[in-house]
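Retro notes
What went well: the complex prediction finally ran end to end.
Inputs used:
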Amino acid sequence: MVRLRVWSLLLVWSLELGAWNFQTRGQTAAPPTQDPLMSLMLSQPKIDVGAPVTAIAWFDPPVVGPGQLSFYRVTFNALEESIEWNPAIAAPPGLELKAGARGQVLQPVGVTIEPRTSFNYRARPPAAGDLTVPQFSVTVSGKPIVVPAAGLRVVQGVAAPAPLQPVLEIPVPNLFVGQSAKVRVLMPSSAAGGPQVLFQVELSGDGFIVDKGAMRQSVENTVRGGSNFPTFIHETMFTPVTEGKLIAFAQGYCAVPVTPGVVVTNGRPAVPAAPAQYVLLESEPVELSVKPLPKKGELPGFTGAIGAFTVDPPKLATNLLKVGDPVKLSVAVRSATGFARLVAPPAPQVREWQVLAETAEGEPTRLLQAQGFASFEYTLIPMTEEAQSTPAIPFSCFDPARGAYVDLTIPPLPVTVRPGRAAADWQAILQESATTGEAEETLKLSGLALAPGRYAASLAPLQSQSWFPLVQLAPAAAFIGLWGWDRRRQFLEQHPDILRRRRARRALRREWRAVHRAARAGDVPRFAAAAVSALRVACAPHFPAEPRALVGGDVLQLLGSSEGTNGSAVVAVRRLFSAADAASFAVGAESPADLLVLEPELEQILQRLEERL
Amino acid sequence: MGRSLRGLFGDCHLGFFWSLDVGAWCFLRRAACVLLVVSPLLARGVGSSDAQFIAGAQAYKNDDFERSAVVFRQSAARHPASGTLQNLGLAEWQRGKIGPAILAWEQALWLDPFNQSARVNLRFARKAAQLEGPDLSWNEVVSAWLPINWWAWLAGMSLWLAVGMGTLPGVLRQPKAAWHQALAAFGVMVFLLSVPAHLGVHSRSRLGFVLDKDTPLRMTPTLEAQAITRLSAGEPVRRLRTRGNYVFVRTSRSSGWLARDQLSLICPPDGKI
């Protein structure tokens, strides 16, 4: 047991010693390394944002002649985001302050970096006098900071040295929307002849964009007063995006020695004895006239290219193709005016080809400028062996010098296409893309309709409105009526006596009325004729016969069964027929005047005959 | 007015009027009276609507889209017309009201499927707002080929044409000719084809569109109900049933309840905009 304890202690000791040895070796073999990014960050000077915020304000230059330019500058040792700056400053009477540049820079102060935010105003005092911008308060990080008063002395007849200003050069004052132009910001040398470098150079204004990728800075000798002086030049590309009058000016920081006497500080010196300060300088504003691109004459394939472009003959990898095999088409575009905003034309949608655009849109303008051309590449896949040439790719640009669009269409190249594998999905993709292309072309909001157009009494459909089924019942009623009329007609055709009796009743009533009229008029012949006619009409359906063919005997035959041969009705009928026959056939015969007394008897006879109809 | 009209027409002794049958004459006289009374009212309504249409167009040209939308809506409420609804949609779109714009264009197509401008505007709006169109069944698609009221007249006329061609020759004692039977068969065919379209019109009238963006689709018809999802303005829904102030709808994603004022049907229940 004791032996075991001793051996176990030895074992533990040896293990610990081994581990200590390993640790020692490891420490010596791999010393700890620092993250390079962290090292870089730690090596940077500290940005001092905790210092008390102060403001300085001064006129540059402080003494000018009437009408001479002087800048009113206000600088804070604070970040721009923390300053709630009101651009409207209460200027003294007779002095107009126009807002100019504003910006922020980090200035080394000892071992730290201090933010400096500057606001510039342009002033051109019209008359001599002492002008003072009174002190005012600005909120910085939620605390009020007093901007001290600044004085400007305007002395008649004094020609003070002009304030330090860069110069903005825009070679083309009249541009089209989207037309890029190379602009230069020049910073002349100092009075001592040394170059003055601008940094954080920007173009300020509205309605344009600046391509910072095309920026180039250099120091060149320029002639001034017959002597060469080094001049700092900042070049960039300027592109207006809105039409009309544009105003732009350049701004940038320059290390300028500041005389302590001209700085008015807030309480204590804000910039203690610095040999030079970063001062925000700005150029004179430049006014540009920007015209819109003409709509008239726009050619297919215009993608916004503005300038003088030429297209080299396209190059095809091979002109012997198989259906379904891709082939590269490349074309070089050259320009004497730059490649800014040069976008390749879209791939055309044609039935025989699948065209995929592979353009170098992302290449920086500077690189394109250096190589002298931009290259458009397309992958073409023949879909059928019927294709005999590559499709023409519409392309055009706008030439501002001529003020017109220029056709740069990439011409077709002859090819020979042999049968090959024609995947069905290619056709589907092609058809879909063709359809999508058409739809995209037509998709835009229409204009106003010029007239109300097709209208309805209600948005509810007719079949849901109550009156519509009733209207549909009208034809149904008409058809039912027609059907009933037809049935009735067929019935009457099978029973013609019904019609004869109906007509006889109608005629009897007519003749009856004639009898009454004749009796009232005392016209015996007409009475007799009407009475005979009525009797004939009433008896005709029973034979059946034409009424005019009946004689008195026929009437008596119908009456005979109930009247006998000597009844009053028989006598009346005979007398009436005799009178009618006499009036019709006898010469000079006169109807007996007492014939009218038969009217009651005739009434009864006719009633009896009507009942039998 | 009745007495004066009787004076105008009732006691005249023109030979032409006497030659007419008495019943027909009475009918004509009454129709003339009705027309005389109603036509000024109709003319006043149409004239007012036209004036509103012109005022709406003028406001639109002056970029006063809010007023333009109000005036076009009044005009469409008075006389629902395809062009007016198209312009109403444009004004609403310019105001940023996607839901009412899409609804107006759908209603324009509801009245006149041949209005290509409204169709293109709808496609443009749906592409811009990333919206889907309503999912239509085949008979609803067929019903959208013609204006909604054409189907009703087409079905009615084709039915009675078929009935007439089948019965009239017999009634009129005309020998049945081949063209009679052909016309009857044609009428029957058109009627049968129009029946599915009728059903399509009926089901399409339940389509509605969400008016406001981020409209909650609720699980139950209560204000405190949990929101299943949120619908975009202009999203199509299909009304299934109504309960109180809520409508149970089905969208392409799910079903749920919407408040009545959160959607508008393509064909409102009273037929008025």
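What we learned: The longest strand of chain A covers residues 208-224.
What to try next: split runs per interface for comparison.
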